[in-house]
Amino acid sequence: MLLNKKIRLVAAGFLLASGFVSSGCNKKQPPPPQMGPPEVGVVTVQTQRVALTTELPGRTSAHLTSEVRPQVGGIIKKRLFTEGSDVKAGQPLYQIDPARYEAALASARADQAKAEATLGAIRLKASRYQELVANKAVSQQDNDDAQASLKQAEAELEASRAAVETARINLEYTRITAPISGRIGRSSVTDGALVTASQQAPLATIQKLDTMYVDVTQSSAELLKLKQSLAKGLLMSNMANQAKVKLILEDGTPYPLYGSLRFSEVTVDQSTGSITLRAIFPNPRQILLPGMFVRAILEEGVNEQAILVPQRGVTRTPNGEAMVMVVGVEEKAEIRRIGVARTVGDNWLVTDGLKPGDRIILEGLQRARPGTPVKAVSFGSMPAAAAGQQQPAAKK
Description:
Oligomer: single chain
Number of helices: 5
Shape: elongated
Helix content: 25-40%
């Protein structure tokens, strides 16, 4: 009896709870508030004037370089300069022992005097024979021999004069002078060293440092692309006016003076597929030294109708194609594939796929589904919370 009473109480409680649940389920929930299209931050595409540059690695070299070598052999008696100093063209640098060259000059002069004396006697004899042969006092053969001896003596005199000049020049070569003005490096020889004429090792090297060359290399493919852009009118070239070049030094600091492009090699290096370009820079304070590694920023030209898109708005397809999300017709988001040529700062230079007036979505990309309506607002005007949900920037 008691058990039946407990069962009836549990059943009554279950039915009461079921009634409350049923009552709650039958209540109508209030409808959710109506949401408008998601806001997206956009920028409007506009053409602008952009100066295009290329950064290339390079090395510096002296404007003028001269390796000092002896033109006669002998013993170095004296070094006449200070290593690392500035020298002038014609300034004496070394003195070779001149003793044997002085003797050679004296001997050549003696031979010249002998030739002059011999020539005087032969000239008189030839003159007499010329008169006697007219009177048939001597034979024609004797006269011909006398005239030939005269010509031989004249030739010997000229040879002796040349020998004197050679000996004099060799004597002058014993004093080795600077061929150019510039800064001279260390000396490879000391006093008492034996040197030979035109030896392979230079005695010292002089370099003119007030003007410096910078040689950089550019791939032939990039050069062809540049020429095609110029031919199509996409770029306006300044090369006719010697394009300016800027330098970045090894420590990352910019060189304060601009240079100009002066030379472009006419042959492609077969091993690297590159072309050498040469720029010239003033170097009054001699900041640039030969052999320094630098980065040269060359002006390629100017694009008067360039379209730039921030890199954060560009993504890539699995095939590597660049694409952006734009606000299209009927204010709906749509995907647009574009062609990009290069980066300019933190922007992509677009060559195809966009036109002035197009609106590119930069903020709210995660809420902009292709084909769905969106509300376009100016980039940067969205609330911080919404902007913080921006998807990561596209990979370059």
